[in-house]
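Last lecture ended with a question: if I hand you only a sequence, what can you say about the shape of the protein? Today we answer it with a concrete record. The protein is Cupin type-1 domain-containing protein. Below, first the input exactly as provided, then the predicted structure, then a couple of comments.
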Amino acid sequence: MRAVGFILAALLLASTSARIISADKAPYVRSLTKRSNFDEEIVNLGFESAIHKRVAKHIRPDYTNAWQRRKRAAADDGSITNFGSKDPQPQRGDKGASFLHGSNVAIDKQNIDYLSPPPTDAGVVPNLKWSFSLSKTKLLKGGWVREQVVTDLPVSKDIAAAEQRLAPYAYRELHWHRVAEWAFVINGTVRITGNDEDGGNYVADVQAGDLWAFPRGVPHSLQAGPGGAQYLLVFDDGNFDAQGTTFMVDDWIAHTPKDVLAENFGIDASAFANVTTPDPYIVAADSWPSL
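The predicted structure:
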């Protein structure tokens, strides 16, 4: 009891002579002082007594010195797109070096993150885009078509695409696929037809900005309006060029007995005597019937 009383008396005596320390002098007060937009440093504003060092290390670690040693560099978000009148270069900060020869500036500007990768890119980043300008164009009487398949863009195993142009009134002959087809009309008017296995028939005119979609196996044809048409086609298989993916009506006619065709369509077999081979793919025309 005497020991306890002695301790209490000592504490009371200390409290009567204690002084108040302002917040900016307190040993545990720290302030975050922003020196610049990208340079932050923790500064210790109080004196560090022996007791402080013994107690503080059990409360929280002291990162003051580490923060002072590590100055933060300016943020690099990869948005290096403002070149002004200068051509883009394979440089970023103090890394890389300028070209010593010519480069395709237009493509460099379109793919700046390939030319000058941001620091957030790690490992191998596969090519995720393909330009139709790099595809071989198939020229036909009445239009053209160019494709992107998995051999062009290896990462695209589940999607292929084609850009197609029809001259005024030209046809994309009746055909069907083992894959589904989705389309977006870029410009012009397209008359689409579809015939399903249940005997349903569909005809409609679509304009720029419209969409269409045909399930796999549904025969369909396309015809441009008086101003021609251009559209984007997308298929749910990257290997769209594989044999057995697309079937043309003229190829089917050429491999079907003429008497079977005559019986099916109710016309004379001679009507199928001059089927075009190989298939024309696109057929030129000078009009279309009114709906």
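Comments.
1. The helical segments are 2-17, 50-59, 64-69, 105-110, 112-115, 249-254, 258-265.
2. The first helix runs from residue 2 to 17.
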